[in-house]
Structure formats: C-alpha cells, structure tokens
Amino acid sequence: MGSEDLVNLALRRSIFYPSAEIYSNSPSGFWEFGPIGEAMRRKAIDFWRRELLQKESFLEIFGAQILPESVFRASGHLENFNDPIVQCRKCASLYRADKLIMDSSKELVPESISTAELDALIKKHEVKCPKCKSKDFATARKFNMMMPVSIGATGDVQCYLRPETCQSIFLDFDRIFKTCRAKLPLGIAQAGASFRNEIAPRNTLLRAREFGQMEVEIFFNPKKINSIERWGEVAEYKLNLMQLGKDVRAVSCADAVAKKILSGQLVAYYLARVQQLYEKYGVPLPKMRLRELADNERAFYAKEAWDFEVECSEGWVELIACNNRADYDLKGHAKESKKEIKVKEEGDSEAFIPHIFELSAGIDRTLYVLLDLAYKKEKRGPEERAYLDLNPKIAPYFSAVFPLVNKEGIDERAKALANELSQCGIDVLHDDRGSIGKRYARADEIGIPYAITLDFETLKDASATLRERSSMKQRRVKIAELPEALWKLQTGKSEF
Ligand SMILES: [Zn+2]
After folding, report:
1. What is the pLDDT of residue 199?
2. Which of 272, 260, 249, 274 is CA-nearest to residue 226?
3. What count of other Cβ atoms lies within 10 Å of the Cβ of residue 130?
4. Would the CATH topology of 82-144 be identical to that of 397-491?
5. pLDDT band at 371; cut points 50, 70, 90
6. DSSP-based three-state secondary structure for 50
7. Could you tell me the distance, in angstroms and rounded to a whole number, from the CA of residue 104 to the centre of ligand 1?
8. Sheet strands side by side (includes 66-68)
9. With respect to CATH, is domain 3-67+163-372 assigned 3.30.930.10?
10. Ligand 1 center to residue 87 CA distance, Å?
11. Which of 116, 158, 270, 391 holds its CA 20 to 30 A away from the CA of 351?
12. Per-residue pLDDT tens over the stretch 320-333
C-alpha cells in the first residue's frame, strides 16, 4: 500500500496524529496515539515481552528519562552524537549537510565525514538551497542532537533527555547483576521513550523527535562468545544476511559463524531470535534482511553492527540496530564515575568487564511497518474493501460485537455478551452505530480479527454469527460457547 493510505487511515481513526495539533507553532516530529493506536502499540510491546524477553529469560527495568550530563560524557554522546548541519545564508533555512548533498548529487556521503569535507562537497556539486535556490551556504557545523534539560531552581544541574533507553541499563547493570543473582550472559531490557533533536523529522513515525524504543542489552563474557547453551535451537536456522557489497543470502547460523561472517555464536543466536520475532509478528521472510554496516556507517560505540531491516512501501526501513558494543559502555561509565564495574564468574580467578551485544528496536517504527504491510484493499463486487490483515495479537481488539438492530432486546443481549467476553479476558469492541455494513468496515480497517453479530435468529436459538476478518468466512455459534471458542482462537488452540 502507499504510505498515504496508512496516514489517511491513521488520521481518520486517530491511530496516530500530530501532537498539540490545535496549536500552529507546535514543533514537528512529535506524535500522539489515540485509543486504537495506543492499544496496538501496547500490544506490539507486549508481544516483544512475551516472545523475546520471557523466552530468553531477559530481565526488564524501567529507568528515568532524564539523566545527568556525566552519563553522556561517559557514553560519548556529548562529544559524538552530532548531525552535520548547514545553513543557507540567503533564506536562513537549516539542512542536514549530508542529506542535502546526497539529495542533490546522488553521491553517498559517509556518516563519519568531517565538516570541511562536507563544505568541499557542497562546492563541488554546486548544491542549491532547495527553498530559495541560493548557492551561498555558511560553513557546515556539528549539531548535538540531545535535548538539554535544566534541573533545580537555579538550573545548575545540567541534564539531558535520554537519546537512547540503554544508558540506564548500563548504569544499573552492576546492581542488577548482584541483587538478582544473575549470571552471564545476562539480557536486561527496557521499553520507553527516547528523544533526539532531529533537524528534519519526516515520514511520520519513522523519524520523530520523541520515539519509543524497546532495547535489550546482553552482557556476556567475550571468552565465551562461542559457548551458547541453546545453540542447537538455531544452528540450522537461516538468517537473511546482507554482507557489505553483497546481495541478501540465506545463511545458517552455523555457517555464518564458521565462515566468520559473524563474530561468534552469541551474535548469531540473538540475530536469529530477532528474525524469528518478526516472523511471528507477521512479516514475511523475503521482506526482512540483516544488513551489515560499514565502518563509516556504524554508530561511534559499535565494533560490529547489523541493521535488521524490513521492506515496506517506504522502502527498506531499519527496525533494529544490532550492535556489538564490546566493553565501550561499562568501561566509560566506570572511568567517569570512578566505580569499578566488573564481574567474576564461578571458577574464574580474575574479574573482567563484560561485553555487550544490543538489540535496539524502534517501537513506533515496528508498528508503522506492521500496519503498512497489513493494509489490504480488495474489490468485492462493486464495492472496495480495505482491511488490516494484522496479527490478531497486535489488533486493538480481538473481537467486535454488533446487534443487527437496536430493538427487541437484541441490543441488550449484545451488551451482555460484550461484558461477558471482556470478563473472560477477551478484548472486545461493542459497536451499535450506523448500518451493519459500516460496522464491519470500521472493524476491518483497524484489523479486528473476529466480529460477532446478534440478530433475530439469536432470539430463537441463542446463537450468533461469528465472522473472520480476512477471509470473511462466517459460521453460526451458540452464544454460550462463544467465550471458549474465542479463547481457543486467541490462544491458537483452534483455527477458524
Ligand atoms: Zn535558501
């Protein structure tokens, strides 16, 4: 589908929409989720919890969003978390220098380029200001993307909104390792908001200034990168690997390690879990790839990096940064805080700094791509039907209950059924507005997998019509059997 269809649907049904939209001076790059969008977003996070965190015995924390400057001095963000920007001297428009050059020259600009080299490229390609066509640019400079916050009445404690959720995981590692009686490899996870002062927020949820991350940081002993307990479960599983300068190939985890495409079993194991997670979300395998990043594309803290990308109508979108951060973070925080962060494993004589492999996923990006891939339009006779062919576990409601008419007690029975389903733990939408056709259409376009209609038959034999969204197949079910039937569908114990 086109991204326009998705944005139209999102705005029409208040799935997501611009923040503070009634004010004309609200900055772009901030988004709200309405009731339907928030339900989907919450379920997308819960899915990650159930299918990744619980199955891998990762521990989840919830850290503060504002952290002191020392944290970001140690992490390298004060020094390195910059975008190069350039300003038009004539109309004062600001641009990301590398983007501007790439858009007007098609030349690929590496992330690690210096400002002097950017100035030279702007001259060489005679880059024009997209707004006023002037070629007169001020020299490029680095712009730090963190958002500063002053704390306290005098404002003298300099803090920042976190640009990634993982820093509190690094800060908390020592405490959690000791108090939770953990052992390596240890995965600590967090889902929450991060903030980046993007110069040019765009593509709605794909590049926003406030965005959700669900991150896992796996702490491990670098000497044991090739002794993974559950290796047998993934050894023959094939990853869609796209090595530098090569096409995507399906390579088994065992081969990827043997041929040194990946640095060890631990990396292969968790990349497999990532790809499997998105298969379960409902992304088809051919639309996924793990793309190796070149030296000049990698974040400043990563020594090995694979972007998990999914192809949607916006092209290939990065959903997860999989980075081998080695001992960069713990070493940095130990040095800055002057507190030792080391562990000793059983039978080991010497304490060491654990290495870190991270799986840093975007929540809003994941949701955007799932919606984009799920959006279907089809001709049904003279009518066109639009629906979200969404994983039922991400749908905002699992079922909808409609009374055919609002009379003769049918409406009352529908309300009672909705109540009962809800008490049985099945998310249900009760909708009695407009025609029955419109109600189906409204439920279909937000991806509700099952709709139940109560009609005049119901009064005679206490049965209702159960309809599946994507196939539009229907069957008649006794009302008393509906809770169990839906529960079985929800838990995968039966198929429609
Ligand atoms: Zn200009």
Report:
1. 86
2. 260
3. 12
4. no
5. very high
6. helix
7. 14
8. 66-68, 157-161, 147-151
9. yes
10. 8
11. 270
12. 999 999 999 999 99
pLDDT tens-digit readout, 253-299: 999 999 999 999 999 999 999 999 999 999 999 999 999 998 878 88
**Ligand 1 centre and the CA of 100: distance in Å?**
12
Domain boundaries of the chain, sorted by first residue: 3-67+163-372, 82-144, 397-491
- CATH 3.30.40.230 is the classification of domain 82-144: yes
| 88 CA to centre of ligand 1 in angstroms | 5
pLDDT for position 1:
44
* CA gap 242, 444 in Å, rounded: 36
CA of 233 to the centre of ligand 1 (A): 57
Please provide the distance, in angstroms rounded to a whole number, between the alpha carbons at the two ends of the chain: 27
Collapsing DSSP to helix, strand or coil, 195 comes out as: strand
> What is the arrangement of strands in the sheet containing 94-96, beginning at the earlier edge strand?
94-96, 82-87, 141-144
What spacing in Å lies between the alpha carbon of 145 and ligand 1's midpoint?
23
Examine the pLDDT at 347 and tell me if it is beyond 90.
no
What SS3 state is found at 79? helix
Q: How much is the pTM?
A: 0.93
- What's the mean pLDDT when you consider all of the chain? 94
How many A from CA of 122 to the centre of ligand 1? 14
Query: 161, 170, 157: which is closest to 64 by C-alpha?
Result: 161
Using CA atoms in the order 478, 482, 484, 489, what is the torsion angle rounded to 10 degrees? 120
What average pLDDT does range 37-42 have in this prediction?
Answer: 98
H helix or E strand, kind and range, residue 355 = strand 355-362
Q: Estimate to the nearest angstrom the gap between the alpha carbon of 252 and the chain centroid.
A: 25
Query: Who's near 406: CB < 8 A, 6+ residues apart?
Result: 432
pLDDT exceeds 70 at position 2: no
